[in-house]
Design goal:
Chain lengths: ~550, ~550
């Protein structure tokens, strides 16, 4: 019987140290809900400092309810020469709503000498008193032993004294951190074994690894196999330098390879969608080759593979992809696609036969090959279905559109768009200005269409997202534009893909208005988003709805 | 004293199974030369089949001379029911120039039953006779035991019989393959230990891992630590599904962490440039977070880190980046202090006083508040520093630029840009078409500037990224554009931020060209490409230029 392993997610704090990683307070709250729905035990939210972003985050988190996850605030031991009860940061942690506080402290003599210039004995006092202060203030404390493995290699007995100081002070758990990512699995494994024995079971331990040697996941597993009962990591392994240990792969391995029941089967199925939604929030393209959850993780090419898979999937697969919410690329995708199409048609109140369904699937396949991606563009997909079902009326006939952006010597940028369209046989020519070409194009199109369909003027573009596909082709790459629109009741997503960003945006704009005019609310009365969220539990479906809008 | 470890690269064969991986015969020859210069011992070139591409590859390889690496041809044991001496594929291998042949055979009963439908005894005969045939034909044979670890878990004694059959037939080395990537380091380690003991040192062993559990590197190291003396992998871990074990990280770990002298110090310095040039040949954007060789692998943000690094780099780095041809990067961000700015200035050979440094920091803070982010835009930051240091010359004076994008009734999109600039008192007016407005603007600007600064026409935009900030404002949100440029030796990043995407792109374009014209190489070099150019032989750096142009 394996011990229970606690999953500790550091995406919102350590993950944000990664290059280009940034989330608004609102986005962080959404991430927290996705982590909660996945079954993460502890979510490290960051330091509740006085900067507006952090203030808002902790204010929001205090109001949110989570099914399972606990929120941990993160900080440091008191600063040198300042008594804990006078340390400003410790007071901020004490005043924070979070019942759980993780504080990090020094363990490595090199850092004591070279970085913080703190005497070894004084450091022990700082560790003890900081923890004692927080406990007096009613907090539960997790102690992160920074640079532990470097420290242990350098001076094992002093490193152990730091851990014992934290344990005696009342920390409920001591986390061994490979802060510089300098350790390998066999080193982590033997050190953890010795530490667990050395602490004589007086306090629980945890592990916090980084991926500098491309061993972050293996290191975390080695620690668990040697007695650590909490694993810290980040979703998709985001983090500074080469990233933190990837909690997604750690979960996959613990549950499917090592027999630890860290999640329920229902939660495990969320692993793939959760990993992808968090990439979307970070505006990072999901890694197609990511273990367990990547699009190619269970992809097979070659006749022998396919034949083997048909005979017995275990011949060429280390596990069933469905267990982690992923799918086999060759065989299952088509069926899944067909199922999705039929479901969507029904959801939109459309009646399409098998032939039409097959045509839609072919069309979708071609479009996806060109860079379309309908997961976040249900409205565009529904318009495809309407065309096949013969329930599509074009909103207008395009004669032409044109955008002009110019900058003069004074640096002033001006931007206008002109559209020429026919509606019901009448020609409409409109020109509008905007602070960007797409904004101007949108204004011009709406001013014309609004005369015939006044209610469409209420449609608001709530979100505009651009991703360059094949980024390494420089400015000649293909552009994917995702637009989310709302009429105040429903929100829907549309997509455009073209080498030219304006042309791609135009496609998404037109789909947005055509959907608004033609699509009737689905039986559930909540538009396509709800369908997107199908298969996820209610609590999370709200989050999915929200996050897809980002 | 550690045993000698043989480095076996499978990039040209197994690596090509990865999604979208493709190289011409000519490119494969270039890769082979880069691998040879790095110090790889054996290069697996593929199966010398009769298709034109493979024919050309092997014809070329036969004519090339390599300093150190041996070429291995790759194939399978004879097909069921066909005597080895009549097996067509084995004859092709026998006729190939390569002195070394790697053949893969079955070991796992599940595959014998479900896939190839071969009797267990017959399989042993196929292994023995195939190897004996190739040895009679004068080849040295490496035997790849496919699915070995699954087989060993399923029926250890039969798996061992397969290995003994290969050894008795005269294979010089037996490679244990985790073909489905289903094993973890502790399983690989113990199995390898038992196999090495079981074979009684009669034959050398090797390891071939995949990354399905995100443990490909750790698995390979576990095998070496338990007696395997050859490691197979691919550069940057390319390969099917989640990829093969990453030979780049394996080399970094063996040499810098485990004390195996797999390369000379001079060869090890090539690790980063070689990893990058192979990405370029594959037309893949190098992973900035890749262990050992990524742009961020030794990146630091935050004042405390930078201060620590200055006191003693080992406080925050697991090794000296220069050993593997990488370099320390100091990411400038809100977290960063003046230390970082001073380091940056020094790195750019600029002398700025404290007052100037303070001004730059204020400026950076204001810009970051507006959405700028200099972590991925060193060149824009350096230009900022140059302006403060009085070492900045504008490349031109802008009179105006204009982009026009239009679509007609037929759906045809056309796009042009016109720029009017003054260079040295002369007015240049240029109009260019492009498949997008930014592409057209770039072409127009370059055609004008190229007349005065011809070398700037060689500057390539290798990466163009767009992020909509504050996405909830729909198309009126602020746009951040990041551009990576390269002159074939160096790459640099520039940034633009504006409500208008074209205006933001223009800022980044201009910075890119001004940096190319003005920035002198920093003492420490400015990125992998520079060290590539410095560190590699002329022949190779010629390749770089070519590949960046592709």
């Amino acid at each position: 019987m394996n011990p229970t392993i606690q999953l500790y997610d550091a995406t919102l704090r350590d993950g944000m140290q990664g290059e280009g990683m940034s989330l608004t307070a609102e986005e962080k709250v959404r991430v927290a809900h996705h982590l909660d729905a996945l079954g993460i035990d502890i979510i490290e939210a960051g330091f509740p400092s006085s900067n507006p972003k952090e203030l808002e985050l902790f204010k929001r988190l205090e109001q949110e309810t989570f099914q399972h996850a606990q929120i941990a605030a993160f900080g440091m031991t008191s600063r040198r020469g300042i008594p804990s009860h006078e340390d400003e940061s410790l007071h901020i942690l004490a005043d924070c709503f979070a019942p759980l506080v993780t504080i990090v402290g020094k363990t490595w003599d090199l850092h004591l000498e070279k970085v913080v210039k703190v005497d070894r004995e004084e450091n022990l006092v700082m560790i003890s008193e900081s923890i004692e202060f927080l406990i007096r203030e009613g907090k539960r404390v997790i102690y992160d032993a920074e640079h532990f493995f470097d420290a242990y290699r350098s001076d094992a007995s002093y490193a152990m004294r730091c851990l014992r100081a934290a344990a005696s002070a009342g920390a409920e758990r001591i986390v061994l951190c490979d802060t510089n990512g300098s350790s390998l699995p066999h080193q982590i494994g033997s050190a953890v074994k010795e530490v667990v024995a050395g602490l004589g079971g007086r306090v629980a331990t945890g592990i916090h690894c980084h991926n500098d040697l491309e061993c972050g996941v293996a290191n975390s597993l080695a620690a668990v196999l040697n007695g650590a009962t909490q694993v810290q990591g980040t979703m998709n392994g985001i983090g500074e330098r080469t990233g933190n240990a990837n909690l997604v792969s750690i979960i996959g391995n613990l549950q499917t390879k090592l027999g630890y029941a860290v999640l329920t089967d229902e939660q495990l199925v969320r692993l793939t969608p959760t990993a992808h939604v968090i990439d979307e929030l970070l505006n990072v393209a999901p890694d197609p080759n990511q273990p367990f959850v990547g699009r190619n993780a269970f992809a097979h090419k070659g006749g022998l593979h396919v034949a083997g898979i048909r005979a017995d999937a275990s011949t060429f697969e280390h596990m069933e992809p469905e267990l982690v919410g992923n799918e086999r690329a060759l065989l299952v995708s088509e069926l899944a696609g067909r199922h999705t199409i039929i479901e969507k048609a029904a959801g939109a109140g459309l009646d399409i036969d098998d032939a039409a369904c097959a045509r839609v699937m072919d069309h979708v396949k071609r479009l996806e090959h060109d860079g379309f991606q309908f997961e976040a563009a249900d409205a565009s997909l529904e318009l495809l279905l309407r065309k096949e079902a013969g329930e599509y009326e074009p909103l207008f006939t395009l004669h032409s559109w044109r955008t002009i952006v110019e900058q003069d010597a004074s640096g002033r940028v001006s931007c206008e768009a002109t559209i020429k369209i026919d509606i019901g046989g009448d020609r409409y020519v409109r020109t509008a200005e905007g602070n960007g070409p797409v904004n101007a194009l949108d204004a011009a199109l709406r001013s014309a269409i609004g005369e015939v369909h006044p209610h469409l003027t209420d449609v608001e573009l709530v979100n505009y997202k651009v991703r360059i596909l094949d980024e390494h082709h420089g400015t000649t790459a293909t552009t994917r534009v995702l637009i989310d629109s709302s009429d105040g009741e429903r929100t829907w997503g549309t997509i455009g893909v073209a080498p030219n960003i304006i042309a791609a945006s135009w496609q998404a704009l037109v789909d947005s208005l055509e959907y608004a005019e033609q699509a009737k609310p689905s039986p559930r009365g909540s538009g396509p988003r709800r369908e997107l969220a199908q298969g996820l539990a209610p609590a999370a479906s709200g989050d999915i709805t929200a996050t897809v809008e980002t």
